[in-house]
Design brief:
four-stranded antiparallel β-sheet; alpha/beta; 8 helices; Rossmann fold; about 230 residues
C-alpha cells in the first residue's frame, strides 16, 4: 500500500501545483490518475519516486519514503516518458543490460521477450535503438520498467505513442500485474483505456482529491468533465 498524507508541491511557494493531497493506494489494484495538462500528474509521480522535493509524507507499506528507497528502491519502477539510455545498443542488448544491472535472472529475460512480443516490437529487438520510432522507444522503456518485477509500478501517460494493438496488450499486462498483487498507478488522457483498466480514479486539480471506485455504471467521461476545472 502507498499512503500519502498532505502532499504539497510547487515550483513557486505561492503557486502550488499539488496541495494537501491525502490518498491511500491499495495493493492488487490499478489506480488511474487524471487531470488536465498542468494539473500536476507528472509532478505527483516524481514525488512518489523520490525525484522531486515536496511537503507532506509518503509511506510504502508503512515505511517512510526515504527509508524505503534506501533499502528497497528496486521495488519501484516508473515510466515517466523517458527514452532508453545507450541508444547505440540494440533493443535486445539494452534489455539484457537492464536485467544485468538489476541483478535479475534468466526468467526476467524470458519475461522481457514475452513483453516485447505482446507489445509488438519483438521484430525490432536486433535493431539499434537509435533507429526506433517514437512508439518503439515507448514500448522498450515500458518493457524495461515492467520486467523489474517490483511491487510498485508508476506509468505516466504510457499510451501516448502506442498503436491500438499495443494499448490493448498493455491493458492486459496491467490486469496480470493486478492479479499478482502489484500496486499500479497510471495516468493518461485516454479515458477509454483508463475506464477499462483501473479500479479507482483520482482527479488532480479537483478541490477535493479523493479516490473514486470504478463500478459497472460509472461514467468516467462525465466525472472527468465535472471534476476537471476549466472544462
Amino acid at each position: 500500500m502507498i499512503k500519502i498524507r498532505q502532499l504539497s508541491f510547487g515550483y513557486q511557494k505561492d503557486r502550488p501545483i499539488l496541495q494537501d493531497i491525502s490518498l491511500d493506494f491499495d495493493e492488487g489494484k490499478v489506480h488511474g490518475i487524471l487531470g488536465m495538462n498542468g494539473a500536476g500528474k507528472t509532478s505527483f509521480f516524481k514525488a512518489l519516486t523520490g525525484s522531486l522535493p515536496y511537503d507532506g509524507n509518503i509511506l510504502f507499506n508503512e515505511k517512510g519514503q526515504s527509508d524505503f528507497l534506501a533499502t528497497q528502491r528496486n521495488q519501484i519502477s516508473s515510466y515517466l516518458g523517458q527514452e532508453p539510455t545507450y541508444d547505440f545498443l540494440t533493443g535486445r542488448e539494452y534489455l539484457k543490460s537492464q536485467i544485468n544491472l538489476r541483478g535479475l535472472d534468466d526468467e526476467a529475460f524470458r519475461f522481457a521477450m514475452d513483453l516485447a512480443k505482446r507489445l509488438r516490437f519483438d521484430k525490432w529487438l536486433d535493431t539499434r535503438i537509435s533507429n526506433y520510432s517514437l512508439g518503439s522507444l515507448c514500448k522498450i522503456e515500458l518493457t524495461s520498467q515492467i520486467l523489474c518485477g517490483g511491487n510498485y509500478l508508476i506509468l505516466d501517460e504510457p499510451t501516448n505513442s502506442l498503436d491500438a494493438h499495443s494499448i490493448i496488450s498493455l491493458r492486459h499486462i496491467l490486469e496480470q500485474l493486478r492479479l499478482e498483487g502489484k500496486t499500479v498507478l497510471v495516468s493518461s488522457h485516454n479515458l477509454d483505456f483508463l475506464n477499462k483498466t483501473c479500479d479507482t480514479f483520482a482527479f488532480l486539480g479537483d478541490n477535493s482529491v479523493k479516490l473514486i471506485i470504478n463500478t459497472e455504471d460509472f461514467d468516467l467521461e462525465q466525472e472527468y468533465l465535472k471534476r476537471t476545472p476549466g472544462v
